[in-house]
Structure formats: C-alpha cells, structure tokens
Amino acid sequence: MNRPQPTTGGEAVAYHVTVRHRPGPPGVSGTWADGGIAERKFTGFVGRYGTGADGVRIELLSEAADGQLAMMRVWPPESTVGYRGGE
To answer: Measured between alpha carbons, how far is 15 from 4 in angstroms, rounded to an integer?
Structure first.
C-alpha cells in the first residue's frame, strides 16, 4: 500500500486527522502511525462531516520525527488558501 509521505524533510512518525467546526475547537481528531489508515479516516470524515456543512474544515497532517507538521490534504480544497495552522 502506498502511504502518504510528509512534505517536510524526514520520515513521518505520525499522521493527524482533524475535523473543525467553525467557530470553536476541533470537534473530532485522531492520530495514527500508519499513513494508510489516516488517509482512510480522512476520506471517511469528508464523507461524514464534509458534505453540506458550512464552516467545516478537515485536515490530514504528517508529523516528522523533529515535530514539524506538514499539511497533506484539506477539505474543502480551497481552504488551503491562507492556512496558518490551528485556525
């Protein structure tokens, strides 16, 4: 299986998926060591929370061994514009 790879230097040690309902903190989040599982969770969250809901943002991030996070996927796709992390 092809696992998602981080866009930062270094191998990913964890993958984070977060669902945010604006306004407010993350509503659903999870962390996985396996990129394939995290990718499936991201896709499932898009199907469950991303259709027809205004103000929902779903993120898949990789975490390198040095702690750097890299955005891998985001829903809706246009929400990557102006991303500053944690908003």
So the answer is: 9
Strands 69-75 and 26-32: unpaired
Cα–Cα dist 34/2, whole Å: 11
The continuous run of DSSP H or E covering 56 comes out as strand 56-64
Dist CA 53 CA 43 (whole Å): 16
For every one of its 87 residues, what pLDDT tens digit does the chain have, with 9 covering 90 and above?
Answer: 344 554 455 788 999 999 988 777 768 899 999 999 999 999 999 998 887 667 889 999 999 999 999 999 999 887 554 444 444
User: 């394939």: which residue's tokens?
Assistant: 36
